Amino acid sequence: MNALDVSTLTELRDRLAELARDPAVRALVLTGAGGRAFIAGADIKYMSGLGVAEAKEWGALGHDAAGLLETMPQPTIAALDGFALGGGCELALACDLRYASPRSKLGQPEINLGIVPGWGGTQRLARVCGLAVAKDLIFTGRMVDAEEALRIGLVNELADPVADRALATATLLASKSPVALRCAKELVNRALAGDHDANLAAEADAFGELFASEDAHEGMTAFVEKRAPRFTGR
Description:
The chain is α/β, with parallel strands linked by helices.
């Protein structure tokens, strides 16, 4: 069920950090093996023995992994097939796009354990789906099926096989300018935080700065010449 323990989550975080630094990686798909779950959550048996200090370390590890998915320069896509619960839902929320199979079930059931989401769920769920939905799912701990997840905006699309859909999008994004994608991701991520005028100013500044890139020159030249652009990430 791909439940996360310390070693697995550490390995995931380290792998994400490695990929974030690799200019050859143009897009990333995160999925779960086995066809039963994306990530069924964290290792509850392990968590039950934690004290406050250890729990904060465990939470920080999850935040590190989720933060990488959210901020790494490449677009990240979650391909959900089966359960995406607790930390699994939180890692999916940290991705830029989420596709789910019709068999998927998502939720933040931490309240049933006497705790709260600890890897960004209280913040990202509200940003993705709105406060009312976030409070419903986090306060009740209930699961939603794939159809409801689509209706409330928790996933972008339902697909089967979902991995094929995610890889098709990743292939499309890999054909875009890495420079422009990185810039777009940074700008959109700040849209719901900070000062609106400052965010608009940042967009205006980034828009102008991109004209110094080789990718911008290539993209506009290719358009004029009516050919496909060949972006290099410079």
